[in-house]
Here is the input.
Amino acid sequence: MPPLNTSRPSPITFLLMGIPGLEHLHVWIGIPFCSMYVVAVVGNVTILAVVKAERSLHEPMFFFLCMLSVTDLVLSTSTLPRMLCLFWLGAHDIAFDACLTQMFFIHSFTTMESGFFLAMAIDRYVAICHPLHHTTILTHARITIMGIIVVIRGVAFFSPHPILLRQLPYCRTRTIAHTYCEFMAVVKLACVDTGATTRYSLSVASIIGSCDAILTAVSYAFILRSVFRLPSREASFKALGTCGSHVCVILVFYSTAGFSIFTHRFGKNVPAHVHIFIANMYLLVPPFLNPIVYGVRTKKIQEHVLRALKVKVV
Here is the structure.
């Protein structure tokens, strides 16, 4: 009599563990995470509302900023509410289809985030290095095309993830050692060889992330070269302050995302709680910082927000 096949191609639910080893701190970890989420939602919604209401802000920089804000809202909302339910309510169960849906949104919109960082770097390069041709180079049509390309890229390269995982048999534990449904955490639960699937995921993430990071770095290198050539020292310091804050946000995103990717490939000795905590950072910190750096520090948005609140701008 042949042995019974105990594998299941699609389990009903998975169990999210949270941060292994820090379960006793989940309630406290949830407090700063919730605060960051509230700031991210309020900040990004404010940016969208201000740019929509003020026609004077209908410029390339603010169009890209709106695209980034929408991405931040989707990315943070697809992870934080579910994560807080885990931390505060002990809701570990997540349906299989819900898990795959969350995974798709996380990975595709993280890729879009990277793409919009690159688009904004290109916009700043054109604005600073070719100011007289800024609006003629970055027309509304070209901005739209760039946005569509970023979205299609994110969807096209990461749509296979949930499809591939749906085809796998699962005969091991249903417990995902993570705070959300990350592809690499879920694929480990399959009871077949997933080497090709894992290599595809890591290769796509590494190539896209590396290309975006390199092109963004090149753009800011040209920007800095132009800034140092400005005749006015005051103008140079002002431009450096703006670019410096932008670069800091981008560095946080790429350093934490890169750490997570390369830990899956090479970091076998990295403690699980360290890896998962940092993996949460590249989903939480950019949506939290982007409205502050790109919004609050932008004078035009400051003025319009204060005007809406009926506060006199000095």
User: Anything to note?
Assistant: The beta strands are 13-16, 93-95, 175-176.
